Structure formats: structure tokens, C-alpha cells
Amino acid sequence: MKLIARFLKYVTFDTQSDENSHATPSSSGQRVFAEYLKSELELLGLEDITLDEHAYLYATLPANSDKEIPVIGFIAHLDTSPDMTGKNVSPCLVSNYDGKDIILCREEGIVLSPSEFPELLNHIGEDLIVTNGKSLLGADDKAGIAEIISAMEYLKAHPNIEHGKIHIAFTPDEEIGEGARKLDVEKFGCQWAYTIDGGEVGELEYENFNAASAKLTFRGRNIHPGQAKGKMINALLIANRFIGLLPSEERPECTEGYEGFYHLAGIKGDVEESILTYIIRDHHRDKFNARKEEMERLTSIINSEFGAGTANLELRDQYYNMRERIEPVMHVVTVAFAAMEAVGVSPNVKPIRGGTDGAQLSFKGLPCPNIFTGGFNFHGRYEFIPVQSMKKAMDVIVKIVEIVNHERNTIYKKTLGFGS
Ligand SMILES: [Zn+2]
User: Fold this and answer.
1) 45: left (phi over 0), alpha (psi -120 to 50) or beta
2) Cis preceding-peptide flag for 386 (omega within 30 of 0)
3) pLDDT number for residue 413
4) Which of 196, 222, 293, 300 is the most buried (most CB within 10 A)?
């Protein structure tokens, strides 16, 4: 199967991104891989293929219909996580998985076991692509790239499937949060798009956290401890007082699903000055704003207890929940949902407890939910992906294209508000 051959080829490129680099792409391997993909897309006969100076690769599958069909896009990322090496990736295929332990590396005793990863048991009888225990696999997100390109190839080979213009883009540095930044949304020219960058088969995501950071600086007054009575103000203890004012159960380790939190991410200081850094997360915009207001309120409590100017709060918004940009165009989710059901996949919609490139893109004007690749245990040596799940992801992409054509009139009339 071409899809799998593609994937196995792609993982041999070392495209680990580098969070310490200020260049885009952050590592040269990403450009090498992008150039390889460019030549592949040329061979496939896609059009308007451009690889820009930052290693963003764009291409178009032209429409094969005169009808007015919404223009959509598919996006995946070139890089792999900085968390684990992506060099010398040497995958193994476990055919017809029997539900037992999979030995990844005999000499180092590295085992992929259903006792630790019970999700394996949902894939008995399937063919799993695993690592040799010494690197990550890179299904995140080379599976997404292979699935998108294979779907475009399929559509080219099946001209009976009527479709509009389809744009694809492969972006660098998603893993270091830079992937969406330099994507030229205007040039990409889609009404909406999907990132193919999720995990387990069925995953469909269009909600993520609203995110802010907070830096609190507390000013103290240091006096020799022997003469400190009535004079010393200990900035460390003020910080401690502030920590105690926050609700103790609204922390990452106590929350899940749609529950937001304050996360104390850093603490440093001495008697003279102490600094707390927090991240604030919540899916609901109102609650997110309320959390920021609470930070302000607690800061003023400290200032009234210890004197004006003792505590200083700097709040900075980081990103927002894409849901508010997706809801007005809910057909982008409905189409993906229907496509999954049509190919026998149960959609599993869940809120992301983090950010995503699709969120940035949605706020740049390109509504962009995220769809599964089929992979598991991203960013480490236990990463694996069932061949059958990759095939399903490719089927979903093809089916989305079909549904967008079939439903073009409803999409235009009901949601986008202009005539059929
Ligand atoms: Zn990814």
C-alpha cells in the first residue's frame, strides 16, 4: 500500500525541531524533508507547488468541477518533537498483533506492553508500526502528511469523485509552537481547513484552552534578622501568602475535561524580592477572564495587607479557544463528523487541554479543527500507529472532500449565507 510505503520513507528524515533556534525552520532537516515532499508532489501532478524561504510547502489539487464548491485545505507538520531524538528512526511492522508484549529493543529491554498501554488491546489483529526503542516514531505528524498526500493521489486517480479546489500545506516547527505563525492564510486561500495531527482513530478536536501567563513580583524589605522586629518585610512569605489565597483544588493535578486551573510554574526570590510565575487556563472565555480578574483581586489584597506597591501583576494572553471561531461555521465540524461516520469511524470529540496550531490559524481567519492521524504515545519511544487507523484517516480526508461537494448548497445557504 502506497500510504504505508510513504510513511515508512518519511520517518527516515530527521526533522526534530529545535526550541533554542530562532530561525524558521528551526532545523535544516525539515527543509530537506520539505524538498523531498515537493518533488513527490510534482510527480503526483499537483499544481501551484511552492516551498517558501521558511520551509512552508503549499500545493493545490485543482477542482474537477465547474460547480461552486467551498475551497478547503488540509495541513500537517514536518517536524518531530524536541523531547526525543528523531534520528535513525528504524520502524518495525508488527503484523496481525496478538495482544501480547511487543519487544522494541531486546538488548535494552524496552517493551511496549498492554499492561502499561492498554489502548494496544483495541488493535488486536491489526498491523502496528512501532519503533526500535531508540527514537520516537514520528507518526506525529508524518502519518498526517502521508495520509494527506495519499488522499490527494487517490482523488487524482478517481476523477469520478467530483470536488472543488483543495489546498494542502506542510508546516515546520509545530512542536515548538511556531508552525502557524508564518502560514500565509491569504495565500493558502481556503474557506476552512483541517489539521491532520490528532491521536487515536476518531479524534476530532475543535476546542482548546484560553491561555494567559501571569508574573507576580513581590517587594520586601531586608533588615538584619537580629534587628528586624517591626521592620523586615519578607517577600518570600508574601509570595507564600499569595499562593495560599488561590483555590487549592484548581491546579492541573486536580482537574480534567473542561476544568480550568491556575498553575504555579515557577518560584524564585529572596527576602528582598520574590517572583511567582503562573499559567492560567480555561476553555470558557468568561471563566478565563474571571481567573485573570481573580489574580488582580488577590494582588490588591496583598497590597492592602502589606502596603501599596508591594505586589505587581503582569498578565499576558497567550492564545484563545478556537471554539469561538468554529461555532459560527459549525459545518466545518459537522462535515468531519459525517465523514468519519461514513467510513465507519465513531467520532470522539474532546476538548484539548492545551493549545494547537489550528487555534492560531482559526484566529488568523482560517477555521481549522484537528483530525486524528491514528497514532499513540507521541513524542517518545513508545509511539506506535496501526496501519488500519492510517487508512481510516486517509478515507476520512477523501470522504470530507466528497461531502463538501454533496452538501455545497446546504453549506452555502445555511451557514455562509449566500445563494446556491
Ligand atoms: Zn503533531
Assistant:
1) left
2) no
3) 63
4) 196
CA distance 244 to 32: 51
- The closest of 294, 304, 312, 335 to 163, measured between CA atoms, is 335
C-alpha to C-alpha distance for 211 and 202, rounded to whole angstroms: 26
- Measured in angstroms, how far is the CA atom of residue 198 from the centroid of ligand 1? 7
What average pLDDT does this structure show over 125-137? 97
Assign 419 a pLDDT band (cuts: 50, 70, 90): very low
Which helix (H) or strand (E) segment is 70 a member of?
A: none
| pLDDT tens profile 388-418 | 999 999 999 999 999 999 998 887 665 544 3
> Ligand 1 mean position to 101 CA, how many Å?
26
Q: Is 262 helix (H, G, I), strand (E, B) or coil?
A: strand
Cα-to-centroid distance, 299 and ligand 1 (Å): 37
Give CA–CA dist 221/200, Å, rounded. 54
- The answer on pLDDT for 247 being more than 50 is yes
The Å distance, Cα 169 to ligand 1 centre, comes to 14
**Which residue, among 325, 306, 190, 312, has the nearest Cα to 241 in the 3D structure?**
306
pLDDT digits over 68-80, tens only? 999 999 999 999 9
Give the count of beta carbons closer than 10 Å to the beta carbon of residue 225: 10
**Structural domains of the chain in order of their starting residue, each with its CATH number:** 1-207+322-415 (3.40.630.10), 210-318 (3.30.70.360)
Mean pLDDT computed over 346-364: 91
Catalytic residues: 79, 174
Could you tell me the distance, in angstroms and rounded to a whole number, from the CA of residue 376 to the centre of ligand 1? 11
The answer to whether 113 and 101 are in contact (CB under 8 A) is yes
Instruction: Beginning with the edge strand found earlier in the chain, give each strand of the sheet holding 210-219 in spatial order.
Output: 261-269, 273-282, 210-219, 311-319
pTM to 2 decimal places: 0.88
Burial 356-386 (b: 16+ CB within 10 A, else e): bbbbbbbbbebbbbbbbbbbbbbbebbbbbb
Asked if residue 203 has pLDDT above 90, the reply is yes
pLDDT at position 324 is: 94
Tell me the residue length of the chain. Answer: 420
